[in-house]
Design a protein that fits this description.
CATH architecture of the largest domain: 3-Layer(aba) Sandwich
Keywords: Methyltransferase, S-adenosyl-L-methionine, Transferase
Number of strands: 20
Bound molecules: S-adenosyl-L-homocysteine
Organism: Alkalibacillus salilacus
Number of helices: 9
GO molecular function, one term: methyltransferase activity
Enzyme class: transferase
Number of domains: 3
Family: Belongs to the class I-like SAM-binding methyltransferase superfamily. RNA M5U methyltransferase family.
Oligomer: single chain
């Protein structure tokens, strides 16, 4: 029997016991089977909750007072955790974070993929789940006449004035503060989203964890960068790791951080980093995994699932700067990588050379267009690896994979929901998911990375 109305009203105070977690890490309590989502509630805890928003099938609430404390609750180390939109689950022990992520993957495999029996292994975690991020993209703003940098407050575009971020690597943290103070000192105008005026929009930093090489990207609204010479000199002096300074111009009214055009202001336009025994050059527009320790574990898993003997032809779709491709190439006959960002493909080609790998070729284009073309050219890979962005694989790409009939597919994903959707489609065309390994790329956030092994039936 369907319910005709929700059992709660907006602004009502209720007592609620949490029995579950959402994929975002919010507590879920039920009244007569009707779920209420409450940020920071943990399973087993009871609390007084204010109902904030009521929908037909669910409501959202705010935690007002907790009556008890879960054994999985800890004091979040970050001062701005409850405001900042960056992290969602610092209030959970790391162990509980890892089981939450495993459960999340099991849940989508049940509900979306309709494959409840596929083994989802325990999430591979970090030894120290802090200071891991090698990349920061931080908005610059102004408050009370002072330049501020910080992440956006949850669900808003208000910048939280912050000095430090505990998931960032320390050098990035230090240089963000330094550049913020230089902008203030030189009186360069931060960009204002509302008026679409001002100069500096974002500071983007990327540091090679194994080499300590740092790239600074200053994203500006205007082409003109006032006091450019002084600005560069002062940034250079901030940290010995800084190897290059780049200006990126983004004149649009948009939430996208970087614009299409970049030019070097000083130094190198790539940084070098190492993953295991390979070296990679990375330019400003290229994707590069943000958690170096976990990247190695993820790639090890992908390579293990690929089960290469040295004789195989392998496709790496959505290959970025060719990271996974080059690890595959060390154990395969030939690897073909495809990637849509031209700068990343340039990096991939240079990276193959840099590592003296001559059995990996890289192509620019949309994977969903290049793969059918490859198929038409008679390319029949033994193994395909895919690592798409959050929206998952394009249907045309899934079809091209099916048409190519590889013995195995290794699917690397940063979004369990689209992974599960695609695994269902592939299963219906004869590719059985054998197992899934979640890897914690983003500790303290609710996101999880996965590596899935599919075998042709
Ligand atoms: N495997 C790489 C990159 C993964 S991120 C690594 O581990 O570093 C996903 C990549 O897919 C990004 O580099 C992005 O630019 C690229 N991409 C996005 N849409 C694409 C498409 N339609 N065709 C090919 N590549 C695409």
């Amino acid at each position: 029997m369907g319910k005709t109305s929700a059992p709660v009203k907006k602004n009502e105070y209720i007592d609620l016991t949490f029995s579950d977690l959402t994929h975002e890490g919010e507590g879920v309590g039920k009244l007569d089977g009707y779920p209420i989502f409450v940020p920071y509630g943990l399973p087993g805890e009871s609390a007084k909750v204010k109902v904030i928003k009521v929908k037909k099938n669910l409501a959202f609430g705010k935690l007002i007072e907790r009556y008890d404390t879960s054994e999985h609750r800890i004091e979040p180390p970050c001062d701005v955790f409850y405001k900042c939109g960056g992290c969602q689950i610092q209030h959970m022990t790391y162990e509980r974070q890892l089981t939450m992520k495993q459960n999340q993957v099991q849940d989508v495999m049940k509900k979306i993929a309709q494959m409840p029996d596929v083994p989802v292994h325990p999430t591979i975690g970090m030894n120290e789940p802090w200071n891991y991020r090698n990349k920061v993209q931080i908005p610059v703003g102004e408050r009370d006449g002072k330049v501020i940098t910080g992440f956006y407050q949850k669900r808003t575009h208000n910048i939280i004035d912050m000095d430090t971020c505990p998931v960032q690597n320390d050098a990035n943290d230090e240089v963000v503060r330094g550049i913020r103070d230089i902008i203030d000192e030189l009186n360069i105008q931060p960009y204002n989203e509302e008026t679409h005026e001002g100069v500096i929009r974002h500071i983007v930093l990327r540091t090679g964890q194994h080499t300590n090489e740092m790239m600074v990207v200053i994203v500006t609204k205007t082409k003109d960068l006032p006091k450019q010479k002084e600005f560069i000199e002062k940034i250079k002096a901030l940290h010995p790791s800084i190897k290059g300074i780049i200006q990126n111009i983004n004149a649009d009214k948009t939430n996208v951080i970087m614009g299409d055009k970049s030019h070097s202001l000083w130094g190198n336009d790539v940084i070098i980093d190492r993953i295991h025994d390979l070296e990679f050059a990375i330019s400003a527009h290229s994707f590069y995994q943000v958690n170096p320790e976990q990247t190695e574990k993820l790639y090890d898993q992908a390579l293990k699932y690929a089960q290469l003997s040295g004789k195989e032809t392998v496709i790496d779709a959505y290959c970025g700067i060719g990271t996974i491709s080059l690890f595959l190439a060390q154990h395969a006959k030939q690897v073909y990588g495809v990637e849509v960002v031209p700068q990343a493909v340039d990096d991939a080609k240079a990276n193959a050379k840099r590592n003296h790998i001559d059995n990996a070729d890289f192509f620019v284009g949309e994977a969903e267009k290049v793969m059918p073309w490859w198929k038409a050219q008679g390319l029949n890979p033994d193994v395909i690896v895919v690592d798409p962005p959050r929206k998952g694989c394009d249907e045309k790409l899934l079809q091209a994979m099916i048409d190519m009939e590889p013995v195995r597919i290794v699917y690397v994903s940063c979004n369990p929901s689209t992974l599960a959707r695609d695994l269902r489609i592939l299963a219906d065309s004869g590719y059985e998911t054998q197992e899934i390994q979640p890897v914690d790329m983003f500790p303290q956030s609710s996101h999880v990375e996965c590596c899935a092994l599919l075998q042709k039936k």
